[in-house]
Write a structure and sequence with these properties.
globular, 259 residues, 3-stranded mixed sheet, binds 2-acetamido-2-deoxy-beta-D-glucopyranose, alpha+beta, 5-stranded antiparallel sheet
Length: 259
């Protein structure tokens, strides 16, 4: 005859062994997930791209309409049309810029209504810097009282309706970068124009997360040797517009840096 007490003991022992096995399986899986996670984190760190880490942290902020923060990082750091200043802006390809990842991201964000939301875009102003881009609003005589006011003009800029003929220019591209002349005596550029105090250039740039930098901080001796009229420190302030909370990296040198 079966002993009910012994049966219960067997059940209890079985349940105990089962729970130990389950616990071991959970710990094992957790350690696999942890090691994958730390590998990804150290990969992100070794790339030294703070905005990618910000993207991972803020994925939920940038809604799916734009494909989330990682997609925004990709679109806003891609450069598929080359550097506009490569040959003195002689071969700017407007149709390439129009279909570039940065322009497409902007159109999607506008269509979803996010661009119109207050504080969706943030302006990041850098003093003593000049960023490159193609002018969507010519700066000669286009005045703004401060770098912040120029940033606001960029935020407020309404692109022209879609152009189909590239020969018509780039006026249908959005403003996502700007340069403002902050020196009362005017601002040096290695070009033929006279750049005056408070001129505000509105620009479209591919890769605004890593802007192309024409000049920054103190101009190096070789630059000043090529351009005797150049000042010691850059007279411009520049900036980019990015969806919050992405932060621009230090960028890459534009070909203008070696003009
Ligand atoms: C301009 O860009 C478009 C799209 O990327 C490309 O198909 C076309 O060949 C380019 N035109 C020139 C003149 O490079
Ligand atoms: C970015 O930072 C690195 C390291 O500080 C520097 O060598 C490089 O020249 C910088 N690039 C630009 C465009 O300022």
């Amino acid at each position: 005859m079966a002993n009910p007490a012994a049966g219960m003991l067997r059940h209890a022992r079985g349940a105990f062994l089962l729970s130990i096995v389950l616990f071991a399986v959970i710990v094992y899986h957790h350690s696999i997930i942890q090691s994958g996670y730390s590998e990804r984190m150290s990969a992100a760190r070794s790339e030294e791209q703070p905005h990618w880490q910000a993207a991972a942290r803020w994925e939920w902020v940038l809604a799916p309409a734009e494909g989330g923060a990682t997609a925004a990082c990709e679109a806003l750091s891609a450069r598929v049309c080359g550097s506009p200043a490569m040959d003195g802006y002689a071969h700017v390809n407007a149709s390439c810029l129009r279909s570039s990842p940065a322009a497409r991201w902007w159109r999607n964000a506008a269509a979803s209504g996010r661009l119109a939301e207050k504080a969706f875009l943030e302006a990041h102003v850098e003093q003593r810097a000049d960023y490159d881009g193609v002018a969507v609003k010519w700066g000669l005589g286009h005045k703004a009282a401060s770098a912040q006011a120029c940033a606001q003009a960029c935020l407020d800029h309404v692109p022209a309706p879609a152009l189909t003929d590239s020969a018509q220019g780039v006026q249908d591209l959005p403003c996502n970068a700007f340069s403002w002349c902050g020196d009362a005596s005017g601002c040096f550029e290695p070009d033929i124009h006279r750049h005056e105090y408070r001129d505000c250039w509105l620009k479209f740039a591919e890769a605004p997360l890593e802007p192309e930098v024409n000049m920054r901080g103190e101009l190096p001796p070789d630059f000043r040797a090529r351009h005797p009229r150049a000042p010691v420190t850059v007279q411009w302030a520049s900036g980019v517009l990015l969806p919050a909370p992405l932060q621009p990296g230090n960028g890459t040198w534009s070909p203008r840096y070696s003009w």
